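For concreteness, we quote verbatim a single protein encoded this way:
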Amino acid sequence: MDIYEPREDSFLLQKFVKKFAKGYVLDMGTGSGILANEAAQCKRAVKVFGVDINEEAIVHCIRSYQHKKLVFAQSNLFSLFRNYVPYKDVKFDVIFFNPPYLPTDEKYPDIALDGGKEGYELICRFFHETEPFLRPQGTVLIVFSSLTGKEKLDMFLMRNHWSFKELAREHISFEDIIVYNVQKIPKGMRRVEKR
C-alpha cells in the first residue's frame, strides 16, 4: 500500500491550515502528514492528531515529523477515538480531511483515491461519524472534486443538518478541486422538514 503523496488537493487545503488550526486538531487520513505538521506549527493549536487507515503512512509520519504537539496513529476514521482508552471521546475544534473522493475504478483500484461507487460514499460515512468528536462550533475543512458528485454531497449535508461554505475552488485539467468549511447546525436552529 503506497502513501498518498501531496498533490494539488493537499496543497489547496494546506492554505487554510494556519487560519483555522486551533485547540485540538485532527488531520483525518493524514497520508504524508503535511497538514498535521503544518497545524502543529500554529500557536493556537494545542494538540494535533494525524490518523490514517494505512499503517505505512503512519510509520512514515512518525519517522518524518517530531513535534511535541503531534500524535500519529492508525485509525479507520474515528475508531481510535471510540476504542483506545487514552484518546477515547476526544473532541476536536477543527478537523482537516483530504479523503479518497473519486468514484471506484475497477481497472485501477487505489484505496487512497477510492471514495466509493459514486465517489462521495466515504465522505458521507465520515460525516455520519463526526458529530460526537466535534466540539460545538467546531469546524470541518474538507477537500473534494467536482467528480465526487457535489450535488448529492450538498443534499446529504443539508439533510443531516450540516451547514457548508465553499472556501476555494481550483481547476486542474479535467476537474475542479473544492474546499468546504462545514459546521453542524445547532439543534435549536435546524429547520423541521415537512413530510
Remarks:
- The chain has one domain: 8-189.
